[in-house]
Amino acid sequence: MPALGTPTLDQLRVFLTVVQTGSFSAAARFLNRRQSVISYTIANLEEQLGGLVLFDRQKRRPVLTEAGTAILTEARKLAAGADDLRARASGLLQGLEAEVGLAVDVMLPTDRLVRVLSAFRQAFPTVGLRLYTESLGSVARLVLDRTCVIGASGPRLFCAENLVTKPLGSVLMMPVAAPSHPLARCAGAIPREELQQHIQLVLTDRSELTKGQDFAVLSPQTWRLADLGAKHALLLEGLGWGNMPAHHVESDIAAGRLVALTVEDLPDHTYSFSTIHLADTPPGPAAHWLLDRLGREMNGLEAMPANIFVMPAETLRSPELDRRPVTAAVDPDPRLRRRLSSVRPRLRPPAASAKSRPVP
Prior knowledge:
The chain is an alpha/beta fold. The chain contains eleven helices and twelve strands. Strands 3, 4, 5, 6, 9, 10, 11 and 12 form an eight-stranded mixed β-sheet that branches. A two-stranded antiparallel sheet has the order 1-2. A two-stranded parallel sheet has the order 7-8. α2 crosses α3 and α5 packs antiparallel against α10. The longest helix is centred in the first third of the chain and has 28 residues. It starts with 8 loop residues before the first helix and ends in a 12-residue tail after the last strand.
């Protein structure tokens, strides 16, 4: 077996340029080198690869051989990897993070988060992302123990002096049950005493930050779950009633899979969010951009302008926020119709009404 050498990055780039331009002479003009240098470089590359012939030189223009076609794929991977390495090094020299750890509350509208992360990927292609989805105090716990540098947390239900917070808006919460559930068949507003006769599905905190505290629990009979998806599935099965973010159950209500409950003396409830980070660990450029973009997306503001770390501004503009009215399922109660009229999702600015209170 012929001895194999180690091709240089320059040899691979010359090889790729010949393929791209279609001839040795065109590659020489493109790279501003003599044609003899291009031919010599390709010959050396072939020698480093154990004598493989990469081009058929018998024709007017060089044509890739079968071996050359196979090597082309690997050459492109290596060249792209080198470009990524240079871009990553350049970003680090400018103070750009290698990776951003982000913790978000499970109640945060997924479509908004996806739009933000899509723009983040375009703006910071060399920065890695580590995303965690948790509920209640578990989001703050990931920031406090430095697993994540930033977070989009739910209501502040505990004291942590070293956390820097900024309001991030809120979403509407509503009590729901399956059509087969007894509460769904109640006419008119449901007395609180009636709610207490049925199992309430409650989202619980995985962390110790809110241990021993209950929030918006109206029934002594509870099933506690740490996963919003599991709670949603149990609601659809009619195994209890519970509060859910309106944007999460909008389609279920419209399709008749769930029924929005109207409860006596229970005003609209919101679940508020805030951005968080440690006071002694301020966000770097990418993390700061991410928090700013998330806040603007949640509150319907214009996107943050491009800076030295981001791609051209046109890649950062937010798509139009979908504010189309929602057509709810049959609802004889006008109060409930008003509550549903602005759900998709119903996001409120940070200055929420003083009467609003969070409901997990």
